[in-house]
Amino acid sequence: MTEAPGTHNPNVLPSDIPAPQDDGAARHLAGMSLPDLALPATAGAPVNLSKLKGRTVVYVYPRTGVPGVDAPPGWDAIPGARGCTPQSCGFRDHFDEFKKLGVAQLYGLSTQGTAYQQEAATRLHLPFAILSDQKMALTKALNLPTFTTSGMTLLKRMALAIDDGVITKAFYPVFPPDKNAAEVVAWLQKPV
After folding, report:
1. Taking the CA of residue 66 as centre, how many other CA atoms within 13 Å lie in the half-sphere pointing to its CB?
2. How far apart are CA 56 and CA 159, in angstroms?
3. Residues 93-135 pLDDT 10s
4. Do 140 and 53 meet the contact criterion of CB atoms below 8 Å apart?
5. Nearest one of 88, 99, 83, 157 to 122, comparing CA atoms
6. How many degrees, rounded to 5, is the angle at CA 189 between CA 24 and CA 96?
7. pTM for this one?
8. CA 59, CA 148: separation in Å to the nearest integer?
9. Quick check: 40 and 131 in contact, CB under 8 A?
């Protein structure tokens, strides 16, 4: 799907986007402790994932688009790049289920700045905060998988289940992005 200049619609998930392959870049994450660092959040106060009690779910995405603002060149051809808005909307739409399943905290995470993220959080009516790893501190500490395009280093799409500061499960690769929240809900519903 090719969009005409100035017509980008981040809510649309084209049927022909390429699926990411499992490159093994997240295999090391399960069992890792989160580093002691605070990340800026769209809700105001910084969030230190290592200090949170109970179960936390963090979905990770490359970058949210803005309606009418062109995506980076070749964006739809990069496996796993397109779909950040549908992924966020999926977590928004399953928010009550996550709470019922014992998730104490739910966050989105990207390397975009908080001001940029705030636009998406407001526009999409997200009932949770988006965290910014603009300085790449968390990315480097956990060796999170990234890719580079148009001069930007972006996180590859995934979701993390974290219990008392330790990663319990990494969902990676994620495809299609709009089904990521349902995939995490299904995992939470399984008996331990």
Report:
1. 9
2. 11
3. 999 999 999 999 999 999 999 998 999 999 999 999 999 999 9
4. no
5. 88
6. 105
7. 0.94
8. 19
9. yes
